[in-house]
Write a structure and sequence with these properties.
alpha/beta; Rossmann fold; four-stranded antiparallel β-sheet; 10 strands; binds adenosine-5'-triphosphate; Phosphate ABC transport system, ATP-binding protein; transport; AAA+_ATPase; ATP binding
Length: about 250
């Protein structure tokens, strides 16, 4: 059955920085149109794993990958794959909002424009900003600098920027860690709205957040995938003692 196929999959994935192996043979299947949270103590390899999904590790000279990473069943690391194209289909939002020092409008349309987008840029900007739940707050000041926005608004702008590329997957690396509780709640609401259109993989340190917003949770520990399954089960009846110890705050 087509729908059951994972959109992203790792097979015996190892991630190394030089001689240091930080992800140690992970098999993971990420279904489409769900929110998958990746949790685990600091340094367990969450961000490294997230970055392999859109070839961001390519920018780290010492990083190298073994095993397979598949997107719709195709090897993301095949020599014929264009990493730029992959990053359009698999967008990323980072810990700290990182808008360009340009107008709100230019932030949203810049990527599509340099990629030869032929449609109407005004319509594209409005649609992406609406989907990112930012339109009402910025519609009268699209030419203002993005840097004038609050941190939470900047993060939603970064989400709009990713959405404007028409991605299938949005990777989020602790997207709320620099935000206050109110801005965090808005991003969490937004993630709920986006899940019907996109596949979302989110790294978070905040276990309440993982429990609130995700359908599936992967628990990583020292580079191993300890447990992966429906969030409800992971947080109420984990199979593994290490998972239970982590989610009950006994370590990490
Ligand atoms: N560019 C790099 N060069 C060398 N080692 C790195 C690099 N990036 C990460 N590491 C190491 O890889 C391991 C995993 O790091 P990673 O950032 O993936 O973990 P994490 O679980 O996301 O941590 P955190 O929650 O603190 O962000 C750590 O030991 C880290 O020091």
């Amino acid at each position: 059955m087509e729908e059951c196929k994972p959109i992203l999959e790792t097979r015996k994935l190892c991630i190394n920085y030089g001689d240091l192996r930080v992800v140690k043979g992970i098999d993971l299947q990420i279904p489409s149109h769900q929110v998958t949270a990746v949790i685990g103590p600091s340094g367990c390899g969450k961000s490294s794993m997230l970055r392999v999904f859109n070839r961001m590790n390519d920018f780290i000279p010492t990083a190298w990958v073994e095993g397979e990473v598949l997107f719709h069943g195709e090897d993301l690391y095949d020599k014929t794959v264009d990493p730029g194209l992959i990053r359009q289909k698999i967008g990323m939002v980072f810990q700290r909002p990182n808008p360009f020092p340009k107008s709100i409008f230019k932030n949203v349309v810049w990527g599509p424009k340099i990629n030869g987008y032929k449609g109407n840029l005004n319509d594209l900007a409005e649609e992406a900003l609406r989907k990112a739940a930012l339109w009402n707050e910025v519609k009268d000041r699209l030419r203002d600098s993005a840097l004038k926005l609050s941190g939470g608004q900047q993060q939603r702008l970064c989400i709009a920027r990713a959405i404007a590329m028409n991605p299938e997957v949005i990777l989020m690396d602790e997207p709320c860690s620099a935000l206050d509780p109110r801005a965090t709640a808005r991003i969490e609401d937004l993630i709920q709205e986006l899940r019907s259109r996109y596949t979302i993989v989110i790294v978070t340190h905040n276990m309440q957040q993982a429990a609130r917003i995700s359908d599936l949770t992967a628990f990583l520990y020292e580079g191993d995938l300890v447990e992966f399954g429906p969030t409800k089960r992971i947080f109420t009846q984990p199979d593994q003692k290490r998972t239970e110890d982590y989610i009950t705050g006994r370590f990490g």
